[in-house]
What we know:
The protein contains three helices and five strands. The protein is α+β, with helices and mostly antiparallel strands. The radius of gyration is 15 Å and the shape is globular. InterPro entries: GyrI-like (IPR029442), Reg_factor_effector_dom_sf (IPR011256). This is GyrI-like small molecule binding domain-containing protein.
Amino acid sequence: MSFIKYTKQEELETGYPIGGLIRQEQVDAGDYWNYSHFYMRVDQPDLAEPFIKKAGKYVIAYHKGSYMTIQETYEKMKTYLSKEGYRICGDSFEEYVIDEVSVCGEDNYVTKIMIQLEEK
């Protein structure tokens, strides 16, 4: 079932940004375009299959531009983590804050990237 059909079937409020989840192994390998899941934040705790993002420390960056250049932001994040004595210890969560629904031109898109981290 498609993600959009599921949100309609479950009568979910879609006022929050839609997001994509990329597994840690893919991020480690530099594969930033294959999503394992799509998600959205909801205020309804009684869902049949809820997914709850783990508590912890996350490095957060905002990528401005096309999805095709998002690897540049990921690589900057990975360099920062290494330099500061951290390593990735979880999946990457992307939220599409400003997308084709909001603006014209891919150069104006904004994607929030959140990756769980821990000290080395």
